Each structure stands twice: as structure tokens, then as C-alpha cells.
Amino acid sequence: MLHHVDGQITWRDRQDLEHHLTQCWFCIDLIARFREIYRLARLIQPFSDSEADPYLRTIGIDPAPPSRWKRLFRAR
């Protein structure tokens, strides 16, 4: 089903899946959820370093210090 949502499915497999979806409410629900997750995943932005730091510390990971290049260009 993920290949169908991504558009990476052969025409024959797509026909088979669409035929199956006319009969199976469980799979209709599942593919609707996949489509919603896929849509939301394209809209969200990744955390910035400062936003991610509290979450990393909560799970016991110390954030890596910024590279020299980032420190150099951030200082200006």
C-alpha cells in the first residue's frame, strides 16, 4: 500500500489493489491513514538545533557541538 501512496506501483498491481479496496473496509481505512500521514509528513519542518536539544537531553543524548564552520558563520 505504501507503493500505491508513493505512486510507485505497476498498473497491474494498482488495478488489483483498487479491486481489493472495493471489498475490504480495513484496507480502505489503512490506505486513508497512509495518505494522511504522507500528506502531513510533506508539510512539517524539521526541528532546529535549539528546538531539538530538550528532546535529545530527555532521552539521554547530549547534542553535538556545532562544527567550526557553523560557529564561525554564526558569530558574524
Question: Could you explain the architecture of this structure?
Answer:
- The protein has one domain.
- Helices cover 68% and strands 0% of the residues.
- The protein contains 5 helices and no strands.
- It is elongated.
- It starts with a helix and ends with a helix.
Structure summary:
By secondary structure, the chain is mostly helical. Helix content is 68%, strand content 0%.
List the topology elements.
Blueprint: H1 2-6, H2 11-21, H3 25-43, H4 49-58, H5 68-74
Q: Notable features of this structure?
A:
76 residues; mainly alpha; 5 helices; 68% helix; 0% strand
Main structural class? mainly alpha
| Proportion of strand residues | under 5%
Q: How helical, in percent, are the residues? A: 55-70%
Mean of residue pLDDT values: 83
Shape: elongated
The number of E-state strands comes to 0
How can the largest sheet be summarized?
A: none
